[in-house]
């Protein structure tokens, strides 16, 4: 049951701990004293309006944005002290907003890009990861020699998730995976998120579709203008009047 799973996760170790994080864009204080915890095996979601700072937090974790102060400790390493190119080698994969697949490359080439840090020597490892991705996404397998630019938005999103899985991550940061997709594809993407998590990969999810995000997550943080306004069990927040009024159109 969900409750048993929650208790099991609670007994597991801390995977990611963001402490007193501050980020500025010039004079704008974009992220203010933010604290976030993600345990091994959880799906944790950040919800909030456009411009609340959700993407900035993900970009700071992955080194794309510099923090003013604070720490981002992943598996015992402070990522703020690491080079952005090194962060993926710790087991942190990022599925960016807008997918950012390589449109002039084939599906297979896109997936191989996700495993670049293994180098050419680990051909067996790359082949095994590729098989794993193709098992999860039969559509990618069928069309592995097709250019990614010919794919629909939903298919490109699958490819972006597949590419992240090629890095053999411990955690995947997903930024707005359902953006611009039809309701049917939104359901499919959230099924994929649950499936990825069931395979033992921790997920930190930024999502505008608060209702779907809260349904799949274990815990959630509500971000407003760079500050954490609420946090707690995702199911409880799903039924919280304040959250329902602000984000669920209830």
Could you write a compact summary of the structure shown?
By secondary structure, the chain is an alpha/beta fold.
Describe this structure in words.
- With 250 residues, the chain is an alpha/beta fold.
- 38% of the residues lie in helices and 26% in strands.
- It is built from eleven helices and ten strands.
- It has helices at residues 2-10, 54-61, 84-87, 107-114, 123-136, 138-142, 153-165, 183-198, 210-216, 234-238, 241-247; strands at residues 14-25, 28-39, 43-47, 69-74, 77-78, 92-95, 171-175, 202-206, 219-224, 227-233.
- The protein has a six-stranded mixed sheet, with helices on both faces. The protein has a four-stranded antiparallel sheet with strand order 2-1-4-5, covered by helices on one side.
- A hairpin with a 2-residue loop joins strand 1 (14-25) and strand 2 (28-39).
- The longest helix has 16 residues, at 183-198.
- The mean pLDDT is 89.
């Amino acid at each position: 049951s969900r409750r048993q799973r929650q208790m099991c996760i609670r007994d597991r170790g801390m995977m990611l701990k963001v402490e007193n994080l501050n980020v500025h864009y010039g004079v704008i204080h974009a992220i203010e004293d933010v604290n976030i915890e993600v345990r091994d095996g959880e799906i944790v979601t950040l919800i909030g309006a456009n411009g609340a700072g959700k993407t900035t937090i993900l970009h700071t974790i992955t080194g794309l944005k510099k923090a003013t102060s604070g720490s981002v400790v992943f598996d015992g390493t402070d990522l703020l002290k690491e080079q952005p190119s090194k962060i993926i080698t710790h087991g942190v994969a990022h599925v960016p907003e807008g997918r950012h697949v390589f449109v002039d490359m084939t599906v297979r080439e896109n997936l191989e890009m996700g495993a670049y840090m293994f180098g050419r020597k680990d051909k067996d490892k790359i082949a095994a990861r590729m098989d794993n991705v193709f098992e999860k996404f039969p559509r990618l397998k069928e069309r592995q020699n097709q250019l990614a630019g010919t794919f629909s938005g939903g298919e490109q999103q699958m490819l972006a998730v597949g590419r992240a899985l090629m890095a053999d991550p411990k955690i995947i940061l997903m930024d707005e995976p359902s953006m611009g997709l039809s309701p049917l594809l939104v359901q499919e993407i959230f099924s994929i998120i649950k499936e990825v998590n069931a395979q033992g990969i921790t997920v930190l999810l930024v999502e505008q579709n608060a209702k779907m995000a809260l349904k799949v997550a274990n815990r959630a943080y509500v971000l407003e203008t760079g500050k954490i306004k609420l946090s707690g069990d995702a199911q409880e927040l799903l039924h919280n009047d304040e959250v329902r009024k602000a984000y669920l159109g209830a």
